[in-house]
Amino acid sequence: MNIGTTEAAARWDRFADEYARNHGEMGDLHKEALLNPVLFSLIGDVSRKKLLDAGCGEGYLSRLLARQGALVTGVDYSPRMLEHAKSRTPNELVIGYHHGNLEELDFLENDQFQLVVSNMVIQDLANYEKAFQEVYRVLEKDGYFIFSILHPCFVTPNSGWVKTEEGAKLYWKTDRYFYEGAYEQRIGEEEKMILFHRTLTSYINALVQTGFLIEEVVEPKPSEEVLMKYPSFGEDLRCADFLVFKVKK
Ligand SMILES: C[S@@+](CC[C@H](N)C(=O)[O-])C[C@H]1O[C@@H](n2cnc3c(N)ncnc32)[C@H](O)[C@@H]1O
C-alpha cells in the first residue's frame, strides 16, 4: 500500500471517540495488564522531570505521569484525541497538549526533555526514522526514550490465531514478516487503521543509526496477579503482542 502518515492519522481522528470510550484512567485492558507495569518499571521516578508523551492519544499516560509529579508535554496528530485529552485533564495537573506530527516536531526546542515516552505509536508512522531523529533532537544528553510497539516478529500483516472449527485457539500464525510498509487492520467497529510493519532488524538499526544506546528491551508478559484477575491473559504466555525499548541519548 502506498499510503502515508497523514491518512493514518486521519483514521485515528475518526476513531478517537470510540478509542476514548475504551480508555479509563489506566488506559485499556491490555495497557493496564501488560504495558503499564513494564513502562512504569522502566520509567522510574519522574518527579519534576520534563517529559514528552509522544502520541499521547486521549492522555491517560500523560495524566498518570503528571500525577507522579512530571511536567508533561503531550503531542498528538489527531485534534479529536487532543480534545478528549484536554477535557479529561483536571486543572491541577501540569500538562501542555500540542497538535503535531512526531515526524516534524519543529515547534519543540532541542535538548529540552529528560524523558520521552511513546506508547503504541511508532508503528503508526510512515517515517519512523524521522520520528526517532526528532525524539533524539528534543532529548537532553543522557535523556531516555521509552517506547512500546506491536511486536514486529508476531504482529505482521496476516498474523492471527489459527482455530479449530469450535473456535479453540490452536496456534498463532505469522506471515509476511519481511514486508516493510503499510497494511490495514480492523480495530474499531467500523474503522480500519493503517499500521506500518517493519522488521526487528530495521527498528534496531534505525535506533543505533540515530545515535541511541539500547539499554533494555522487554516483551511484556502477564504477572501472576494479572492472571488471577484476568485469566484470559494466559494466552499472552504463548506469544508476545508487544515490545518495549528503553534507549538513551
Ligand atoms: C494507539 S494510539 C496510542 C495513544 C496513547 N499513547 C495511548 O497509549 O493511549 C496512537 C496515537 O498516535 C497518534 N498518532 C499517530 N500518528 C501520529 C503522528 N504522526 N504524530 C503524532 N501522533 C500520531 C494517534 O492520533 C493516536 O492518538
UniProtKB/TrEMBL annotation:
Keywords: Methyltransferase, Transferase. InterPro entries: Methyltransf_11, SAM-dependent_MTases_sf. Transmembrane segments: none annotated. Gene3D superfamilies: Vaccinia Virus protein VP39. One of its GO terms (molecular function) is S-adenosylmethionine-dependent methyltransferase activity. CDD domains: AdoMet_MTases. It comes from the Bacteria. Residues 52-147 form the Methyltransferase type domain. PANTHER family: 2-METHOXY-6-POLYPRENYL-1,4-BENZOQUINOL METHYLASE, MITOCHONDRIAL (PTHR43591:SF24), METHYLTRANSFERASE (PTHR43591). This is Methyltransferase.
